[in-house]
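Dear support,

I submitted the protein below through the web form. The confirmation email said the job was done, but the results page showed an empty box. After a refresh the structure appeared. I'm attaching both so you can tell me whether what I see now is the final result or a partial one.
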Amino acid sequence: MTLRLRKTFLGCAIMAALMGVTSCSSYKSALYMQEAEQFNENPKSQLYDFRIMPKDELIIVVSTTDPEASAPFVRRIGQSKELNNSTYGIQDANLLGYLVDNNGCIDFPVLGMVKVSGMTTRECEAHFRELLKPYLKEVPNVTVNTSNYKFSVLGEVGRPGTYSSENEKMTVFEALALAGDMTLFSVRDNVQLMREDATGKRQIYTLDLTKADIANSPYFYIQQNDVIYVKPTKAKVRSNTFNTNASMWITILSLVTSVSTLVIALTK
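What the results page shows now:
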């Protein structure tokens, strides 16, 4: 083998090795929850409970064996605040939600202002059962649900937008799945989550979705009104910039060519 062929072979081998390393690196950066084996060896259990916050809208249903007895505590659309249940067809109307104010309270029929912020829905149900005992001959059945649980997913995902869910327990992966998942041009180890707490303070947290221990993060479960932002990779930004610049220069070149052709035609 001549020296020239050896150099050529060596150059090809180096290029192949570099391409392999780059390919492996790109492949690894596209994977979720890596090192799962280490995580499974020492898992940490974490139970998540949805907590009511200001600006939440609650649907509260109070029922007893005697519908007339519980009627004053069930407000429906089209029904007055005083809850005169004699309105025709009111039993079939939709329930009216209770908006939690900035102080964490709702204005509930008969009871007045009741603080609910910070409670889970089950705690809220138990709280209302105790408050309603003096007004009823039996312990009422109370159910509490949220009607405006929503979140937003922005950036390099399949379907950016704002989504709502009836599920009060949703992981960041489930939220991304609803948004069409991340694309191959997404930065998975630097996902940003913006969250507003009960006092109105907003903070941004960074999530590394390539690590399996993300499941132990306090931000693994999203809350109502969370905003998830997925950054694009530098390659995607460069590609878009190149395409934009190329289109601009092609347009300019076409214009210059047209003008030059016109000038040459006029000077003949």
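Response: this is the final, complete result; the empty box was a page-load delay. The longest helix spans residues 234-267.
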